[in-house]
What we know:
The chain is α/β, with parallel strands linked by helices. The chain folds into two domains: 6-150; 154-252, 3-Layer(aba) Sandwich (Trna Endonuclease, Chain: A, domain 1), CATH 3.40.1350.10. The protein contains nine helices and eight strands. It has helices at residues 6-22, 29-39, 44-47, 56-70, 85-93, 97-115, 121-151, 154-167, 213-220, and strands at 27-28, 74-77, 80-83, 171-175, 186-189, 199-205, 227-233, 248-252. Helix 1 crosses helix 6, helix 4 crosses helix 6 and helix 4 (56-70) packs across helix 7. The radius of gyration is 23 Å and the shape is elongated. The two termini are 35 Å apart.
Amino acid sequence: MANVTIHRTGELLRKLFEILMEHPDGIPAKDALRMLSERVELTDYEKGEYSSGGRRFERIVRFATVDCVKAGWMVKEKGIWTITEAGKEAYYTFTSPDEFYREAQRLYRKWRKSRSAISETHEEESEKNAAITYEEAEELAWGEIENYLKTIPPYDLQKLVAALLKAMGYHVSWISPPGKDGGLDIVAWNDPLGTRPPRIKVQVKREQNSTNVSVLRSFMALLGDNDVGLFVSTGDLLEMPKEKRAHSKVVRLPL
C-alpha cells in the first residue's frame, strides 16, 4: 500500500466510522464500502483496479480495517460490520486522521505481539491479506445463503427449519401441509413420545418486507404455559411486542 499515506488511510477510516455510527446494529460490508465511496472523492489510484480484479479502494479500506478489528474498534461477523463502544471512543479521542490510524496500527501490533513474536512488515501484510481473503469469502457465502432463502418456496423453508431442529436433537412430530396453517407450521418435542416439556411451536415466514408486530402477537397467542415459541422469518421485525413472553424467540434468517 505504498501509494496510500497514513493520513489518507486515516481519513477513509474515520469517514467509515461515521457510517458505522449511523448504523449501530451493523451494516453489510458491501453497503458500507459503497456509501464510503460516495462520501469521499477517490484519487485516481484508488479508482484503479488490481490486475487480479477488484478496485483498489475496497482493498485499501479492508486492509486498514484489519487493524481496527484487532484493536477492538470494529466487529465483522457474517458480512456485517459493526462499530464497538471502544471504536466510538477512539473516533472522538483521536480526531487527527494520522493519529487515528496509527493508534489502530499500534493496537494491532500489540495484539500480534501477545500471540507471537513480532514478524517483519511483509509478514504482517501477508497475514492481513489472508484475513481479507477469508472475510470476502465469508461475505460472498452469506450473500448466497441470503439470496437462496429469499427465493426458496415457503413450504421448503418450513422443511428446512424442521430439518435444523432435528439436527439439533429435537423430535419433530408435525409439519403443516401446504395451504392455510392457522399460524402454526411445526411442532417439536424434546423426546420421541412428546412426554417431556416444553413443546416447541414454530411459525415460519418467508417474506421480503418487514413483519408486522400483529403477526407475531397472533402467533404468541397460540403458546401455552408449557410451550416455547420460535418465530422464524426472512424479513425484519418492525418492533417487538411489549408483552413479549420469556419463552418466545424471534429468529431472522440467515442465522
